[in-house]
């Protein structure tokens, strides 16, 4: 798997996310994954971030192939996980498994 950047953000994180995405190098050797706590509401986050970079910014889709230099945003009320070279999306809290030691370290920052 190529290098990845994982960003977990709260609902009030729009300005920091804009700063991070606008500072990504072009070309970017990593795939960028953003999960933002927004609940089931419609999200325009890919459009808001996409105007700040020449990198493709999109909502992730289940089964989507992971490509370097792309920014993937988890859709509202979905959890995003990576399996080999694909993105997997799960519905809200219902399908969460216990958090592993490595995942816990990512969440703590």
Automatic annotation (TrEMBL):
InterPro entries: CheB_C (IPR035909), Sig_transdc_resp-reg_Me-estase (IPR000673). Pfam families: CheB_methylest (PF01339). GO terms for biological process: chemotaxis. GO terms for molecular function: phosphorelay response regulator activity; protein-glutamate methylesterase activity. It comes from the Bacteria. This is protein-glutamate methylesterase. Keywords: Hydrolase. It catalyses: [protein]-L-glutamate 5-O-methyl ester + H2O = L-glutamyl-[protein] + methanol + H(+). SUPFAM superfamilies: Methylesterase CheB, C-terminal domain (SSF52738). PROSITE patterns: CHEB. PANTHER family: PROTEIN-GLUTAMATE METHYLESTERASE/PROTEIN-GLUTAMINE GLUTAMINASE, PROTEIN-GLUTAMATE METHYLESTERASE_PROTEIN-GLUTAMINE GLUTAMINASE. It comes from Methylobacterium soli. Its EC number is 3.1.1.61. GO terms for cellular component: cytoplasm. Residues 1-92 form the CheB-type methylesterase domain.
């Amino acid at each position: 798997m190529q290098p990845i950047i994982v960003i977990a953000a709260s609902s009030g994180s729009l300005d920091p996310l804009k700063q991070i995405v606008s500072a990504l190098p072009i070309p970017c050797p990593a795939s960028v994954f953003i999960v933002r706590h927004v609940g089931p509401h419609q999200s325009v986050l890919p459009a808001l971030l996409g105007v700040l970079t020449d990198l493709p910014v999109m909502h992730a889709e289940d089964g989507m192939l992971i490509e370097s230099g792309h920014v993937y945003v988890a859709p509202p009320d979905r959890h995003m996980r990576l399996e080999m070279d694909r993105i997997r999306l799960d519905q809200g809290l219902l399908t969460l498994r216990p958090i592993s030691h490595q995942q816990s370290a990512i969440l703590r920052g």
